[in-house]
């Protein structure tokens, strides 16, 4: 968006012109986005019709996660339910539930590498399942870090990503981590 939001103004104005066949549908995660982010002259061009979508319930989130995992037995059923219920109770955001599941898989992979499983020579039946403990650790990690990281500058976020990628590279090339690295890698 430009500072004067001229493009948005022209689009919204064009859709309001007599005989215009342009219909704009705007989707936002918050109800007050037009008031918060748009200049008054731009938001005055918006229609007043708003459709409010309710957050997903834990049952719906469990279905969404199960559909994404179709054909893959990566989660214990109780672990999947824990992720769905925790997110359903707080926000009902499917993206958040999937992020927690992604992080739980990383936690389970790290746990399995520590036990000597999960290397390239393992058989598929040796695959480790994501447990409730893995999901709980993922919830704690994503909740604590997201509060802090949200306030980082773009440069700080880039530095953090670089450090994370370097640690992943180091872990993937080493057969075992020095004892001092394990707590650092678990934080990330």
- What's the CATH architecture name of the largest domain? Orthogonal Bundle
Assigned CATH class of the largest domain:
Mainly Alpha
Strand content: under 5%
Shape: elongated
The helix tally amounts to: 9
Q: Kindly state the number of beta strands.
A: 0
Output the structural class.
mainly alpha
Order of helices and strands: HHHHHHHHH
- Taken together, the total number of domains comes to 2
Please, what is the average pLDDT?
81
How far apart are the first and last residues' alpha carbons, in Å?
33 Å
Largest sheet: none
Helix fraction by DSSP (H/I, runs of at least 4): 55-70%
Under CATH, the topology of the largest domain can be stated as Helicase, Ruva Protein, domain 3
- Uncertain segments: 118-124
Report Rg.
22 Å
Any key phrases for this structure?
Helicase, Ruva Protein, domain 3; mainly alpha; 9 helices; 188 residues; 2 domains
How would you sum up this structure in a few lines?
The chain has helices spanning 6-16, 33-37, 40-43, 58-68, 77-90, 94-114, 132-149, 154-173, 181-187.
Structure description:
- This protein is mostly helical and 188 residues long.
- The chain folds into two domains: 6-43, no CATH class; 58-151, Helicase, Ruva Protein, domain 3, CATH 1.10.8.
- It is built from nine helices and no strands.
- Helix 4 packs across helix 5, helix 5 (77-90) runs antiparallel to helix 6 and helix 6 (94-114) crosses helix 7.
- The longest helix has 21 residues, at 94-114.
- It starts with 5 loop residues before the first helix and ends with a helix.
- The model is unreliable at 118-124 (pLDDT under 50).
């Amino acid at each position: 968006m430009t500072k004067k939001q001229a493009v948005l103004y022209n689009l919204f104005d064009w859709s309001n012109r007599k005989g215009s066949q342009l219909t704009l549908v705007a989707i936002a995660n918050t109800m007050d986005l037009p008031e918060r982010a748009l200049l008054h002259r731009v938001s005055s061009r918006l229609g007043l019709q708003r459709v409010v979508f309710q957050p997903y319930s834990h049952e719906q989130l469990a279905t969404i996660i199960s559909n994404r995992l179709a054909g893959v037995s990566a989660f214990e059923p109780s672990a999947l339910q824990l992720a769905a219920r925790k997110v359903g109770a707080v926000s009902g955001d499917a993206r958040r539930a999937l992020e927690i599941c992604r992080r739980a898989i990383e936690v389970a992979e790290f746990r399995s590498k520590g036990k000597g499983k999960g290397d390239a020579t393992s058989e598929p039946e040796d695959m480790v399942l994501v447990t409730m403990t893995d999901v709980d650790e993922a919830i704690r990690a994503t909740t604590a870090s997201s509060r802090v990281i949200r306030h980082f500058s773009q440069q700080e976020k880039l530095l953090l990503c670089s450090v994370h990628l370097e640690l992943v590279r180091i872990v993937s090339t080493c057969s075992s981590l020095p004892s001092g690295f394990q707590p650092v890698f678990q934080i990330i």
